[in-house]
Design goal:
Blueprint (H helix, E strand, L loop, with lengths): L16 H5 L13 H12 L10 E7 L3 H10 L2 H7 L4 E8 L12 H18 L3 E5 L4 H8 L5 E10 L9 H8 L27
Length: about 210
């Protein structure tokens, strides 16, 4: 089996280690993730920032020790994601609440806030030597039916969590994505000053 490749980001400026090392593999080993570590990544999500501290998120956690919940999450996913995610020992379905608890007003930032929580979860996973792969390829309506998600809540993502495995364990069509260099747009394409599209000074280190 091939060795895992070094996927640490080649950043333009220094960043904390978990940011540089976080990526989204599809190859996972079947090694169990401890209850302590699952708790830690969810605790990180708990402490994410949110509008008015609303914390408009909920997580449904399936592990190989809880096959009923795990299989229910799997059943909501598309065939492409099922083909690899079933090796991950933890699947987490994330949902967002569309209204504020205090007065029922629409919360336009709920999905944004959930994204911050899942990002914190993924970074904590990286800090613990785990990998997290977030997915949009699932059926939110089926998730609502399978889990009895109440009105006002929407299933948004599923995240697979586990220990990174060898690309050789994946179908050949997926192996290249595990080893090709990681790339991102340069800062100059999305960090502006003055008028839209004018790169900010920080985008150049000159």
């Amino acid at each position: 089996m091939s060795q895992q490749t070094n996927r640490t980001a080649n950043t333009s400026y220094p960043v904390m280690n978990a940011v540089a090392k976080r990526w989204s593999p599809r190859a996972f080993t079947e090694r169990d993730v401890s209850k302590q570590d699952v708790g830690s990544i969810l605790e990180a999500a708990r402490w994410a920032a949110s509008c008015f501290n609303e914390q408009p998120w909920a997580f449904i956690v399936g592990t190989k020790d809880d096959p009923e919940t795990y299989d229910r999450i799997m059943s909501t996913m598309g065939e492409f994601n099922q083909a690899w995610a079933g090796n991950a020992p933890v699947l987490i379905l994330a949902a967002a609440k569309a209204t504020f608890a205090l007065d029922g007003r629409d919360n336009a930032h709920a999905v944004y806030d959930l994204g911050q929580a899942v990002s914190a979860l993924a970074l904590q996973a990286t800090e613990l030597g785990l990998a997290a792969h977030q997915m949009a390829g699932f059926d939110p309506d089926k998730a609502r039916d399978v889990f009895g998600i109440p009105e006002g809540w929407s299933a948004v993502t599923v995240t697979a969590v586990g220990y990174e495995g060898s690309p050789d364990t994946l179908p050949e069509s997926l192996q290249a994505a595990e080893t090709t260099p990681r790339e991102r747009k340069p800062l100059s394409e999305f960090v502006f000053r003055g008028t839209w599209g004018t790169p900010a000074a920080v985008t150049s280190k000159a």
